[in-house]
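[retry 2/3] Maleylpyruvate isomerase family mycothiol-dependent enzyme: previous attempt timed out, resubmitting with same input.
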Amino acid sequence: MTNAPVYDAAKTRITSLVEGRDPQTPVAATPGWSVKDVVAHLAGGLRDFADRRFDGVESGEWGERQVRDRRDNSLQDAFAEWDANLALVQPLFDTPMGPILVSEVIAHEHDLRAALGVPGDRDGVEVRAALVRPLQELDQRMRENDVPALRITLEHGDRVLGHGEPVGTLRTTSFELMRAIGGRRSADQIKAMDWDGDPDTWIAALALFGRHRPEPFEE
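[retry 2/3] Maleylpyruvate isomerase family mycothiol-dependent enzyme: success.
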């Protein structure tokens, strides 16, 4: 599967989803942001990818800056910028950045769906594609920090993160894993999943952006 068509399809779905909706609808998955803010972030994020500007990613300031700088823009402004910036990043889809772009857009698609009460496909190849780069990143971090290996059993097979023989197992779906490691679930929600082994061994390592959501989030 190539990355550009997956991204383009998600962008089309998001556009259809939010057109005609109140752009100020709060998006609980991204506290403090509205529907318009999420689209502005997607547009501004592409510009930052094109410019290789990634300061503040782990602290959250990366996305907050994009939203803050576009606070006075309309939803249509955000869509226009998204179109323009997508043209700038086309060469990146066939580089290691391509899976990151896919992960970003799929995560925010489901953020918007939760806010608008319109669930989407949680079992398709898009969700699995959105896990490719995050799982690579978590695997590398666990190896570098000597976190015991963990087997993750998903609907399409197993994946081992970390070095050596796994000492625990997490059984979940691709969608729930995407949401858990992407900051859309609290630590308590993740610990309540189907585990063999003590989840506290891996709970910190499973925070892709360095932190889990403070409060539970259901969707």
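[retry 2/3] Maleylpyruvate isomerase family mycothiol-dependent enzyme: The first strand starts at residue 150 and ends at 154.
[retry 2/3] clearing retry counter.
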